[in-house]
Amino acid sequence: MKDELDNCNGCMEACSDQLEKPAKSISRRKFLSVGALTVGAAGATVAATGGLGLLGSIAGAATTPPTCATVPGTVKHPRGTWGYETLDPAVCAERAYHGFYVNFCCWAVVDGVLGTMQDTLGSPYTNLDLMAFKFGAAGVNGWGTLCGTALGAALVTNIIVGAVGGVDKGSAMSNDLLAYYAATSMPAYVPTAPEYEARGGTKPQFLPGGTFPTSVADSPLCHVSTNKWMFAANTACGLPTFAYGGTADPTSIVSGSIERKERCARLAGTMAYKTVELLNAFKASSYTSGAWGGAGVGNPGGSPAQKDCVDCHTI
Ligand code: HEC
Questions:
Q1: Whose CA is nearest to atom 21 of ligand 1?
Q2: Which residues of the chain register pLDDT less than 50?
Q3: Which of 20, 22, 28 is nearest to 36 (CA)?
Q4: Residue 146 in contact with residue 133, Cβ under 8 Å?
Q5: Which residue minimizes the CA distance to atom 2 of ligand 1?
Q6: What is the distance of C-alpha 110 from the center of its chain?
Q7: How many A from CA of 309 to the centre of ligand 1?
Q8: Residues 6+ apart with CB under 8 A from 315
Q9: Is 1 a pocket residue for ligand 1 (Cβ < 6 Å)?
Q10: I need a surface site. Which of 29, 101, 184, 191 has the fewest CB within 10 A?
């Protein structure tokens, strides 16, 4: 399997069918000739030739080469064709746990799974620079939106699983992981070699043998999840909490503390673990989606929403 993928043969064979499809719908030559036509008529109102007519109506388009996204691309490694070999969830989880302390949450989960695939299968996984996924940290560049561990897990499944028989299983699996994240008492993963003490942590609850504080986020949002956990951790440790708008008590487990980092590192381990479990089930043809439900619906019009309406709304 490794040799096959190193040379990309297996992948190219698997995807040759898909490679031909874009060329059938519109060939590069045909596109260019249509593009030249519209460019030549720049400034005039051109009858729409699909989206291309727009080019002709933009002043100055005559000097702009027609290199828009409608040029048929060549996807060399379609998702779902990269190969997957059953992994040990505990090994990937431990790697992700330590990875958090290197490049934070999103990268940690991606590296825990895809990094392991790079080491075991090589190409095409080694074509990916995993640093491209560091941006997901702290709810995407610190914005507190989607938790980086959930984002990392979603990226992994969408690359590895892809679509099967026209059904987007990679996407379904990423939904499962978001729903699992929201519904589960986190963090669930206990590292075999915890870093907390070596990093200066002293709180008994966080040391080996202690009862590590957990919380259910009811949401995949970094901000919501982190703060619910911080309140739960303060309660568990007998520390004063701080109210919204108030001054953070220096003895509280605030964002940025050693305790909070240890929590997010274990969260990365938890999500890597569950991701690998689902991928292994998929590999064994025993995966079914929907175990934890799906997203909420914001209003009768169907705006996207999480289920925890009252976190943000008063009813
Ligand atoms: C992460 C926070 C958050 C969550 C969770 C959330 N909402 Fe909202 N929602 C908002 C914000 C912000 C707005 C913008 C209007 C506002 O400030 O109320 C909004 C607007 C709406 C509106 C339009 C309000 C209006 O006056 O027209 C509806 C309806 C709504 N949400 C329903 C829901 C439902 C139902 C859920 C749960 C399934 C939900 N929302 C979950 C933050 C949230």
A1: 298
A2: 1-61
A3: 28
A4: no
A5: 312
A6: 8
A7: 7
A8: 309
A9: no
A10: 29
